[in-house]
Write a structure and sequence with these properties.
The protein is mainly alpha-helical. It has two domains: 29 residues; 70 residues, no CATH class. 68% of the residues lie in helices and 0% in strands. It has five helices and no strands. The termini are far apart. About 17% of the residues have low confidence.
């Protein structure tokens, strides 16, 4: 093996490691919330739970990066395209609550 070949292999290995170093950071943003948290949010949407609780803001915060798919009825309720994530739903719900609170003051 020549010296040039060894250097090429090292550069390739180094580039490969850099790609792998970026992947975990992206994976941290793509999360799955527990079924308990997702169900609490769905209960909120279908009216089972009143939406005036501050604890529900915590629920939406835990869904902030959740990539799990919302059911179609929940997407329709939030006026989101079908197949949207729980993260999109949580953000849409908070925007709607902020708008309601701003208008009612």
């Amino acid at each position: 093996m020549h010296v040039g070949e060894v250097a090429d292999r090292r550069r390739t290995a180094s580039a490969s490691k850099q790609c792998h170093l970026r992947s975990p950071a992206r994976k941290k943003r793509d999360t799955h919330a527990s079924a308990y948290i997702r169900d609490a949010f769905l209960d909120l949407l279908d009216g089972t739970v009143p939406d005036d609780s501050t604890a529900l803001w915590g629920v939406t915060g835990q869904l902030w990066n959740c990539t799990d798919r919302l059911p179609d009825w929940a997407c329709a309720e939030l006026e989101l395209p079908g197949g949207s994530s729980f993260a999109s739903g949580a953000r849409a719900w908070r925007r709607a609550r902020r708008n309601i609170n701003t208008v009612s003051r």
